[in-house]
Write a structure and sequence with these properties.
single chain; 149 residues; alpha/beta; two-stranded antiparallel sheet; 7 strands; 17% strand; globular
Length: 149
């Protein structure tokens, strides 16, 4: 069974500290502790099959370039990327070949992934956590023990 790991984007971005950073690889854009921890998890357990889901840009491979700063959240349906556009990206990027999707993020991103990857096995190991602290603890333990969630 082939697995794809999708990491949710974060509010804190490289341009918050370095406004002149310019276009930046996705893996370096999100600088918040949660996003960094999720990326660490994805790189450890899914080194060749992980993407970040950006509310503005959609599904981005770690080495794709984000042109500049933005502030679009998952919950803002009028500004975020549409389900139709995400579905188009899934087909264009060949992500529909994966049987199982692991989503590291909150309910909003899990719901979007479920809609875009209909018919696929969706695993959302953080969905029952009561907050970001509990999510971080779960991810930390998995990384330290070398056991995926």
């Amino acid at each position: 069974m082939s697995t794809l790991c999708i990491v949710s984007c974060g509010k804190k971005k490289i341009w918050d500290k370095k406004p002149d950073a310019g276009p930046t690889k996705v893996r370096d854009v999100y600088t918040g502790q949660f996003a960094k921890k999720c990326i660490e998890y994805a790189e450890k357990f899914h080194p060749t099959s992980w993407y970040i889901i950006s509310a503005k840009h959609g599904l981005l491979f770690p080495d794709e370039i984000v042109p500049g700063n933005y502030n679009v959240t998952c919950k803002n349906k009028s500004q975020r990327i549409s389900i139709e556009e995400l579905s188009k990206q899934v087909a264009e990027k060949g992500l529909d070949k994966f049987d199982r999707i692991v989503v590291l993020g909150g309910k909003c991103y899990v719901d979007i992934v479920k809609e875009v990857f209909r018919g696929k096995e969706i695993h959302a190991p953080l969905i029952d956590c009561r907050g970001i602290g509990e999510m971080m603890k779960k991810i930390n333990e998995a990384v330290q023990k070398g056991i995926p969630l």
